[in-house]
UniProtKB/TrEMBL annotation:
InterPro entries tied to this protein: TNF_dom, Tumour_necrosis_fac-like_dom
Entry's family note: Belongs to the tumor necrosis factor family.
Domain THD: 92-239
Localization terms from the record: Membrane
Cellular component annotations (GO), alphabetically ordered: extracellular space; membrane
Molecular function as annotated in GO: cytokine activity; tumor necrosis factor receptor binding
Keywords: Cytokine, Membrane
UniProt source species: Ruditapes philippinarum
PROSITE patterns referenced in this protein's UniProt entry, alphabetically: THD_2 (PS50049)
Lineage per the UniProt record: Eukaryota, Metazoa, Spiralia, Lophotrochozoa, Mollusca
UniProt-recorded name of the protein: TNF
Single Gene Ontology BP annotation: immune response
Amino acid sequence: VVACLIIVLALVWTMPEIPKTVKTGEICLPSEIGPLKCGSTADLLHGYLEREIATKYDEVKRQDQEKQENHLKKVSARLMNIYDKSFWEMKPAAKLTGKEQPDLRKGDISADMVPIREWCNGRELYDTKGFMRYGIRYRNGRLVVPVDGTYFIYSNLDFFESCNPSSGLPDVKDINKPIKHGIFKFNILEGEEEELVTNVQPHTIPTNRYYNSYNSYVSSLVELKAGDELSVKVSNITY
């Protein structure tokens, strides 16, 4: 009994003292720097609730993240059992082949590079080696990316230009203007087109003096976001 009384007295002596006089509109609450703090009811309540809510929010967020990770592991295991390894190989992919192009638009006549606006797509791909898989969409001559990720992009084109038989020089307005071929990205949320990769070649004089042929291949690994639209452009669509 004596030991219990001593412990009770020790607890009472170590407890913080509550001020004898607390003004109207004030309150005493535990603080972040000490056991007890008195002051304006509104200010102290605001600070106290803010600290408590932040702590609880962090705990709930951590629990939710753990729950999501556990759910993903369970779903992944179940899908792997159903589809085996093929599930993880279902990555967005596409390969298109070109077709005859429409007449130039007014805005393209003076442009440095012109987009290729027509590709074999849909049922037209049945007669080609092209394809579109796992979410890739075709829209207005562009390929639309379905999900964020790292993509390997490439384009291969053959160019032909006529030459002046008497001199062998390419029959172009400005022979100093090079031949360009590249892949561009556009996202409606950003509103600006971005050049991803481009190949530049000078004009040459052919040995046959009647026409020139060029081959251009561009490729790159790029980070793309869902909704990004990919297009291929060339400096002269008549080639």
